[in-house]
Amino acid sequence: MAKKRRKVRATFRKHHDAAQRDRRLTRTFELEGADATADVERGERLSGKGRLTRHRTVADAEIVEDESGRLVLPDVDKRTCLLGRVLRVQGLVSRVLGDNGRLYACATRQLLKQLATDLRHVVAAGDRVWIRPEGKPPSDGSPQEGIIERVEPRHGVLSRTSRGRQQLIATNVDQIVVVASAAEPRLKPNLVDRYLVTAEKTGLRPIVCINKVDLVEPSDLVPIVGVWSQLGYRVAPVSATTGAGIGRLREQLKGTQTVFAGQSGVGKSSLLNAIEPGLALRVQHVSAESQKGRHTTTTAELYPWGDPGAGGLLVDTPGIRSFELWDVIPEEVAGYFRDIRPYVSQCRFPDCTHTHEGFCAVKDAVADGWIDVRRYESYAQIRSGE
Ligand SMILES: Nc1nc2c(ncn2[C@@H]2O[C@H](COP(=O)(O)OP(=O)(O)O)[C@@H](O)[C@H]2O)c(=O)[nH]1
Ligand SMILES: [Mg+2]
Ligand SMILES: [Zn+2]
To answer: Any idea which fold 170-325 has?
Structure first.
């Protein structure tokens, strides 16, 4: 039998938008000259039949197995690649801010996509990636092209489940600033607690930011704010109008990736502008832009602010309302209340909801004053799905 030249790529999932992509961005990693017979043999040995067979043939060439048998990509070539951060993903192109301070428009290496079949998106806003720049920086100042070769391990993942698959919204998020207002609209501690549960679940460090403190007497806030700070949450009383507390908040955002959340009207835009003039406008402007295009799959966007090194990255989640991030089931809620969690295992019934049951250690702790009544009410309300 004559040896055939064969392009392995043809056996993979089709590109959805191949025709729309720039030639250079559609570059794939083709393996030519593979012998069909060898292909089958190797396939049998490694993984059996069908489509997988060829998959593994490519694996032989470019993917290696680690000690636990997991398939991983070999190390990137650090002489030709550089680290960067994905600012946004739009369609098949990711905008990456290289650690060299330059912007790149990157396609994702085909093999990366095949390794991550359980994700809707292989690359997400916030990812630390190794990229290989291609060609020269364009003279008109537009971003140079590149290929994402590798995604570094993630932490602080904001995601939601969509049609049974995990959809990444933003990754490597460090903090969530939960913005509430002391008045106009009135403080809703329940809502803050709800965001705190989300923060506990995702492992993001929350900062409870109470804006518009110029409208109230500080002493009015002390009882309610005191409970959060006793639980170890950072609290930032601020006023975007007078500038009170803004300097301290700005310090806490430095060198981090922070997402701002809170109901409308509490002063998020005003706060951003107090942190850096014009920041709110930049966020709004680009958010509107990214909603216009054909690819409305944009999940989040990062905005570098401040001096490089001294500033941080602000994460905005256009088109995604904060309640859509709510991925907590009722049984989990108690575990995400720092003050309730320690008592849960002492209830008589293992499936105690801490609402109507007898012999409930949580309710006893509330009655004895160990758990703040308002926090407990907040728990009960969130637990019941209100
Ligand atoms: N008194 C007072 N008003 C504020 C403060 N911050 C924002 N506001 C006002 O609250 C309203 C809503 O602010 P905005 O930033 O648009 O809120 P957003 O919807 O959360 O982005 C505006 O009328 C602001 O002028 C503050 O610190 N004190
Ligand atoms: Mg706003
Ligand atoms: Zn209980």
So the answer is: Rossmann fold (3.40.50)
